[in-house]
Amino acid sequence: xxxxxxxxxxxxxxxxxxxxxxxxxxxxxxxxxxxxxxxxxxxxxxxxxxxxxxxxxxxxxxxxxxxxxxxxxxxxxxxxxxxxxxxxxxxxxxxxxxxxxxxxxxxxxxxxxxxxxxxxxxxxxxxxxxxxxxxxxxxxxxxx
Length: 144
Hints:
This is Flavodoxin/nitric oxide synthase. This protein is α/β, with parallel strands linked by helices.
């Protein structure tokens, strides 16, 4: 069975909720899925053994949280080239973080990305639950 890893950072728990919904969608798509806070990833070996990766962070004042920036430098040391990737995050008035994560995964890590990043104001608003689950399903489908 294919395995997915969802890594997130959050300030108000909105991005954590999205992370869990993306993982749920991966499971609906027939993939095992593990969810980790960036604080629980200690080294690049913690990223070994997965077929798909979704990284998420909220946007605050037009910026990605520092914990995700630091994590991305760590993830750059892992061999993620060719792996399935996706990026997500919650936002208030702007939503740069998911796109910046997505671009890093695609252009720096050379990952095989899903169509685009997932940006939600809140998982519970405007069909956010279904959108996050569908994002995870799309990742599972792409992983085969």
